[in-house]
What does this fold into?
Amino acid sequence: MKMNVSIVGATGYTGLELVKILLNHPQFNITYIANSTGDTTIDKLHPCLTDVINMEVKKADALEISKVSTLCFLALPHKTSMGFAKQLLELGVKVVDLSADYRLELDTYEEHYCTHEDKENLPKSVYGLPEFYENDIKNATLVANPGCYPTASLLALIPFVKYIDNNSNIFVDAKSGVSGAGKKLSETTHFVTVNDNMFAYNPMKHRHMPEIKEKVKLLESKDLNINFIPHLIPVTRGMLVSIYATINDANIDVKSILKEYYKDCEFVRVKDSCVDIKSTAGTNFCDIFVEQNGDAIFINSSIDNLLRGASSQAVVNANLMCGYDVNIGINKIAYVP
Amino acid sequence: MKMNVSIVGATGYTGLELVKILLNHPQFNITYIANSTGDTTIDKLHPCLTDVINMEVKKADALEISKVSTLCFLALPHKTSMGFAKQLLELGVKVVDLSADYRLELDTYEEHYCTHEDKENLPKSVYGLPEFYENDIKNATLVANPGCYPTASLLALIPFVKYIDNNSNIFVDAKSGVSGAGKKLSETTHFVTVNDNMFAYNPMKHRHMPEIKEKVKLLESKDLNINFIPHLIPVTRGMLVSIYATINDANIDVKSILKEYYKDCEFVRVKDSCVDIKSTAGTNFCDIFVEQNGDAIFINSSIDNLLRGASSQAVVNANLMCGYDVNIGINKIAYVP
Amino acid sequence: MKMNVSIVGATGYTGLELVKILLNHPQFNITYIANSTGDTTIDKLHPCLTDVINMEVKKADALEISKVSTLCFLALPHKTSMGFAKQLLELGVKVVDLSADYRLELDTYEEHYCTHEDKENLPKSVYGLPEFYENDIKNATLVANPGCYPTASLLALIPFVKYIDNNSNIFVDAKSGVSGAGKKLSETTHFVTVNDNMFAYNPMKHRHMPEIKEKVKLLESKDLNINFIPHLIPVTRGMLVSIYATINDANIDVKSILKEYYKDCEFVRVKDSCVDIKSTAGTNFCDIFVEQNGDAIFINSSIDNLLRGASSQAVVNANLMCGYDVNIGINKIAYVP
Amino acid sequence: MKMNVSIVGATGYTGLELVKILLNHPQFNITYIANSTGDTTIDKLHPCLTDVINMEVKKADALEISKVSTLCFLALPHKTSMGFAKQLLELGVKVVDLSADYRLELDTYEEHYCTHEDKENLPKSVYGLPEFYENDIKNATLVANPGCYPTASLLALIPFVKYIDNNSNIFVDAKSGVSGAGKKLSETTHFVTVNDNMFAYNPMKHRHMPEIKEKVKLLESKDLNINFIPHLIPVTRGMLVSIYATINDANIDVKSILKEYYKDCEFVRVKDSCVDIKSTAGTNFCDIFVEQNGDAIFINSSIDNLLRGASSQAVVNANLMCGYDVNIGINKIAYVP
It folds into this structure.
């Protein structure tokens, strides 16, 4: 018997990707779709879904959701999201939250976002990076889906944290496709601004930097000097991360460490040469490559920012929360060519 | 009275850019254009020049060049280039060489390229980065035009070398447009490979790495641990460089150092925010921005890989070698939008 | 029980798309993959398939194919293809040929391609455009998969042929993504040639023009003055066709004609506004829109050139040849965003 | 002695292009730049102009303009533009208006735009297409700069109008880069909407259709059935037009007609093969090619939508209005590669 799920926040790109994944999912059954206004259908919101699904899109209502679904995906802006999550959890609905609201510890969150309005559930939330938190996710009722940058950065960085020189600086040079900026209109996402262009933004000030630092500390109990520099590239979807670090012993075989670390992971591919964006676009894979020059290392990872960086990782988390195999309903075939 | 100049290697992108610049140059007069085969015209090689210039393209011949020109631009592959330069210098022709043949000291060159066949002139060549070698260039008969990556990297790095911690690693994350790979057909330059994609190549192994290291040492007598990681981006022209380094005193005001260092330079713009590729495309400018996070610094530069990274810098060098103002004939207006 | 199928010509884009579709197909089971050289694996040929499928790729051999499969997809260049098809048919293997070899009547073929080397099977082949030849395809042992341009053009044009003024000219202005030109290296597919550019090629001389004319005549017994003008656009996959024609009665309601014509078709979506490329990319859909200005009509269609224009249409044909539902294994969810 | 000119409407792309052209113009001297708000500088509005020009940008004031300049370029939206033009003409300032306000006859204008508020000057305005109106432009005080689509369409169509079958339909399939839509934010110009995509818009309803029809009638006294279908392409600047028509005699040599027609024109290049966008990008050229198939013809033209389609054509008109050579200050060297 299938499990009924809801999607709140169907207007954006991650909401669309959730619909696309769940439509083909053998175990989940979409019973409710909502956005902030309602009164439309999913194929009107996303014309590419014409003749595929024409389900009604309602104005989000927690009680209604609890009546028709066991689990709810929240693809909402931060702050809005915790309002819903709180109600849904009280009503006994499992939640996968794609916003930042439950990703960080209280202090970190309030320093970089706003006052937290669900201090009760925050401590119960599990950070939804399956490679590191699989068992906690299996038992969670609230999973905080990681940000796209932290997903690609942590999967690349964690295997090497214990070997990194404490006093050195780590630099995370990340490049994201424009869909990462969402549908909102801005000069930055105007075609003429992005086409034939590339630039960094918020260097060493982006809100995903504290998320990366906090998780490194929690996972490896080590305070690293992480500097995060995001760039925008003329690509619709995809993310490439280049991490630069200094290890405390030039003789460590970083390639074997990486291969060994992920040998049993479904969705991480350790590559023998530089990774590219297109080979992961459309999939839940994170491709990783590492190169060494003395004590300097270059760790290179690639993900689809909308899938492994958001929606397909959310469904993997839902699979685990509901006792299903991580694989089911998750695409491994890239949009190549 | 105008000065007569020749261009050898008119088939490639840098040859085309040289023709485009020199056509509008108030002091230089193109008297001779050649490539490896000859027997065509410049507008047949580059149809965009139809009704603009239809000059004959000959099979390159040093003696002919010496009869009709005082200075010659060589836009040839390395190895081929030194063969011509040698003859031209013997015949009294000044040379601006856009290849790698005269950029490096003998040992560095032979380690990374091939046996050097003009050991006599190599020591006399001047490295054509005007911000650092202006006076030498003025008196040179042979100028080695820097590579595109070293140009963008050295202009960003040099002002900070003296403040960088000797034991730390410096990481140069460089992103180049596809024109940097030249006209040669390869899977890497196929539209389908590059569009919607991005990837690093030859990480910490590229031949521009020793060029950067050597010049840093010669200019600042300091051996730095420079790691160079080039990337290809879905852009035709332009280059963005992000340099990551650790300084030995977190209280240094890096922004003032940069502003002060370049306050009198025509072709360097110190910016107050992240640089982008389009603002320098079509010009000889190098835009630079620097940001700080404790002792970690992010130096960000942008150039047009075919102009400041090759042809317009070559003409600036020719201006200096011939006693003209650096500015003449050099474009400062970008291809925006 | 699943049906065993082979793929010959696994190196190109259409071969890759066949593998991707058949991997998820509930009824077909890939037992054999080949290209012209063999001695590799499918994930070595297409690294994006790493950890997805690592099947051996052999040097194509008809006898081997007949031993392990009931149906074979040929994704080969024309001329090479008929050589294989002939052998396979003799050995009792059903064939879906993606080349041009069995698309045209003998005279048309030999005028535009080369001497035909399988005159025996040519008359038995069925043109694989399911909307018009479904029943013939169901009974066929050899299906000639249509070209990408003819697929998008015929689906748009056929519903209106009977209303078109015989003496007027029909103009088919078609725009194709670069993947349509295949993997072969050429100046035309170099990133620098295509990026920020667009141009027509072989105007009114392309080999898909006679294919369109012949099928219109066979389907509607009408000789139309069709002029076909293909263009290349800076897009990887996708095709947009704009057809311009004159109808013999300005009062005909073209919108209703189109809606009525395709009301029962799974894979044609009649739209109320202009179609775009992205809404069909990744799917087997053909989106069509029509607009009218007096007796002038504009018929506008969009397909994915590699799927509806090649591989997914080939699998739909195989579904019909094997008595399966047209839908099975065929994707309807686009690569949006 | 140089002539003083003003630019009103400096915020948009055409305003920027005017500044870029006039900066290098040997005869025009920019004395005044304005937009609707003022209180800024041109390099703040367009950061790419940093260290190139830092002139003040004022709130547009006709009286001020008349005191400091002989001629004024108006790069404003329609309706706003005629308000200014009227005042400037009363004050004796020559005007080149880049908006639609003075392009059409009264009835045509009011049918497709709005009530005309300067009926007095409208009849005196000259349509600024130099190939057809050079002498009128020389004597004009008010020139209406043509739209980008009409420029590329009329230059391609006019030479053939007298040979076109009156009863046939003419189809103008036009493709424009995104800069043609201006800086305004809209879903249509969002990078994610345009990248890897292409679509038609307002087919046979666009306001440039009546402009083309009216000019054809005025120039060739012939009423043609012109159908105009614009498309948006994933390109920043450039425009490609494909015109499809039927001639009344299949034996006419269309190639010679075209060559002959433009043999003395500075800025039209008649090509022997299909034109492309990049070869005219950055220039004032219009490239044209024609092909024939019986009585069907394909006329293919390319321009830079911001230059020949707006700003450089405006400066050519100003050159003529001021008695200068059409060539001065006008770029012929394209942005290739």
